[in-house]
Amino acid sequence: MNLKNLHSVFFLGIGGIGMSAIARWFNHIGVPVYGYDKTPSPLTETLSQEGMQIVYTDGVETLPEAFKTSGADKLIVWTPAVPQSSALYKFFDNNGFVIKKRAAVLGLITRNMESVAIAGTHGKTTTSSMVAHLLKNSGHNTAAFLGGLTQNYSNNLILHDEGSTESPVVVVEADEFDRSFLHLHPDLSIVTSIDPDHLDIYGDAEQLKEGFASFIRLTHPDGKLIIHQDAYQKISHADLGAAQVYQYSLESGNIHADNIKVGTGTFSFDYVAEGIRIDGLELSVPGFHNIENALAAVAVAIHYGLSKEAIIEGIATYKGVKRRFEKICTNEHITYIDDYAHHPEEIKAFLLSIRAMYPDKKVTAVFQPHLFTRTRDFAEGFSESLSIADTVILLDIYPARELPIEGITSEMLLPAITSPNKLVVSKNKLLDHLDQHKPEVLVTIGAGDIDRLVKPIENWIKNDKA
């Protein structure tokens, strides 16, 4: 398919963070964009304000006239988050429309551009946005398709300068879900982690590893693979291809950190690699895991010739991604931080960093499990990671695309949690509970609709009720 010949595009699931970035790209180049999503959200409202036409009813009667009949100049972009039983999906499928998954379209958009692809079961959104910011901030001609709203650009899409004489580099967050990242052909790849996840898709950890191995083999033979040391140990050396391989981690590998200093608002460190050292990097997005993400991002910046001064400035001015270690508000009584973590390893990294930042404070963690299958598969890990907090408050499981599984509930995590205080609370009772117990450091954690509690909690704190 030649995307330049498109007359219009319809997105099934336009409110997804990855889908919306591609929708914005088509809108930018002047292709009319239409879409469907199950419910309105701040993101879909923003897309509507940008000129896209969105419906929220899964019925053919809601379609614009342009999509009542098929044509070679019309494209349907689909995410599996919208089931194939959807009335709109069945209409498009039965009437000869060209339907492509989001990942395939992203592959078409980026296939003729030099690309940096960042994959990993966790860490990829922050690392992608760091890479994009370091390059963009230095003046390098850069585009990016991100899986989160970067705070520096208030967007999940960064556009390159089409008038520049410099060939653009496109930074792509490579999603392992549904093996989406296998549509990409990167010149430079980063793999942040290969911890078991999405076992509903892959079946088991070995199949997930093979998925990542297939992604790694797509890296250009003359390119580079920058891979976390833990992930490197899970991949057969035969799967690494011909690309140059660089391992990184916090304390060891070809690339590592030195002189790490923890503050309440910043983490500082030195970048150490073979033949190069950059001292005095200061990251205002806290977390030991974010130092590791920064190590990978700096390695990319060095690859593209950024000076030490540009790298130091880029790291210092990086503001993070919405819902990734995002400090919402603080006062003399309480500090409130929100994070998207939804895997045991992510929660562990997040809470350990919180502990390092606030060693003398009591930590209250509010966690909403995401997916029944993930809760079932990693119940022991969730309980262990959450036990880092002093108080653990569990919300009901967010089902996302799944139907309930008998016996799989948030309550099943409680027995193995060793925190002094642990309980399950409904979302509509959470503020009352917080008001009674006055937390010192409050964190909300999860990838479901727990984000809709962020503003009410912030208002509760700012109204001096904390």
Question: What this model shows, in words?
Answer:
This protein is an alpha/beta fold and 466 residues long. The chain has 15 helices and 21 strands. The protein has helices at 17-28, 42-49, 87-94, 102-110, 124-137, 199-202, 205-217, 229-232, 288-303, 308-317, 344-357, 372-377, 379-386, 430-437, 454-462, and strands at 8-12, 33-36, 53-55, 74-78, 98-101, 114-119, 142-150, 155-158, 169-173, 188-191, 224-228, 244-248, 255-262, 267-273, 276-283, 326-330, 335-339, 363-367, 391-394, 421-424, 441-445. A seven-stranded mixed beta sheet has the order 8-7-9-6-10-11-12, sandwiched between helices. It has a six-stranded mixed beta sheet with strand order 16-17-21-18-19-20, sandwiched between helices. It has a five-stranded parallel beta sheet with strand order 3-2-1-4-5, sandwiched between helices. Strand 2, helix 2 (42-49) and strand 3 form a beta-alpha-beta unit. It is globular and about 65 Å long. The protein starts with 7 loop residues before the first strand and ends with a helix. 45% of the residues are buried.
